[in-house]
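User: Please predict the structure of the protein below. I'd like the answer in structure-token form so I can feed it into my own downstream comparison script.

Assistant: Understood. Taking the following sequence of 551 residues as input:
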Amino acid sequence: MMEIPGVLTVQRAALLAAFVLALVVVFFTDRPAGRWGTALRRRFVLGVPWGSLITLVGVLAVYLFVQGGLDHWNRPLTIPFRAWSYFYPLGVVTAAFSHNGPGHLIGNLTATAMFAPVAEYAWGHFPRGRGSTSFGSWRTNPYVRAFLIFPLVVFVAAILTAAFALGPIIGFSGAVFAFAGFALVNYPLVTVIALVGSRAARVVYNALLTPQLTASGHPAYITPWWADIAIQGHALGLFIGVFLGLAVVRNRPSAERPSALKLWTGILLFGIQQSMWAVYWFRGGETYVLYRAVGVALVVTVAVIIAVTVVASDRYILRDTLGGAFAVRRWQTGAACLILVAAAISGPAVPYNLYTATDGDLPGDEISVGDYEVTYAENVTNGMTAAFELSALGETTTVKTSGVIVRSRERGIWTTAVTRGRLAFDGQTAVRVGGLDWRDTVYAVRDGWATTQGGTAYRVFLSHNNTARVVHTSEPATAGPVIGGRNISIEAAAQGFYLRVKQGNESVAARLPENNQTVTLDGLTFAREKQNLFVEYDETRVKIAKREQYQ
């Protein structure tokens, strides 16, 4: 049923009215009499979390003006803004603030809007220390803390999550987890409520964006949902936030710190809900391995360590006889454990990110666009992950890949921009390349014939500036059963598709007929009817192939 724009507008207005009315009713029912504003002004300049607002505006500005989202809201440029390696500093700097698309952006913005103010409130624009004065130094100046220090710390934390993450990450989620980690050690249950609030905000946003949705079952090409999570970057961001939060919460009297039960519960709920247990490995060939039990055990263990570290006393558990030079306090033991875990998470990224793109010839015939080379190849060694060998849990980084390959020697980029499976499902896809001041698009197109034997003969085109070029042809596909002692196959070539009939050591070939036409080879007659191909022999007619269909 067709959706009527006027009806959708009414639904949006009704939703907004209901939301505003609910807030008004709650406000007057609670009758805060200025308590809310007083609490905020006690910690924020003019009661506003300025650092969080600056962060939100900055991330949005990167999407709009750096990635080109202002003119291409649904098609931002992403390849040059990923953290490919240390040899491409632009990607390391921009990756944490760039996003794959509007859904990715809005998700991180709503999460930031929920977690960042909690973290900023815990830190505060005004010093907590007894006897401290707000304008005693630049470090305690509320305006410096609000407009300079908080945004600067966020910037540095975001860069760290990009610099010490495995693979070409993109997105602000590492910094979001840093906000959450900071907030969790100070206000664990409030942070869990903020997590729920973030999800609720996404639901409201989607309801306003699409008030009415009509859906039905249809084929879809998907990868496992957990394979799209940058778990290592998320964990690193969380630990950065926890370490910064410890510096704040440990300076408070023990009576003002949250209990171990609240901390453990809050961290555990957050970790489970945010899928921090989804430890996985990419095996190659679009195959992923999920280590669910290991991941859940890690979340439970880390939650215990953080909780104990926050509430532990300052009493010594190890003290030497040399004047206390090697004295270790209880909470420092927990902090040391957290440092070891964080090092184990981020350490492998250092050698892994010291690679660059391979310099050898690309497989296949490439198209050059600026400093990029675009081609298509199958079952080739990934030119980035194979540059430095790492292994864990019996897996390896040396993997084979198939699909549309993009390389830039200048930027040290080598990536499978579109997998073979994705292109086979979609039939056509756009690959966007560019830099800070330019962007361009190369289109990858596949066409083929799927045989009744299960094989497919296909070609892949790359199109740029209205010029298309065949860059890959598949192996021949066996078509149908043996008929009259003859084997039939379909072959893909740059000029089109061909039928080959083989009997013994002899074979003949001819171009696959056009629609409503026939061709005869060695006594077999082949007829094309729209998207179907039939063979006729001795009063027998068999369907042997169908034009490949795409979603």
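That's the full token string. The longest strand covers residues 439-451.
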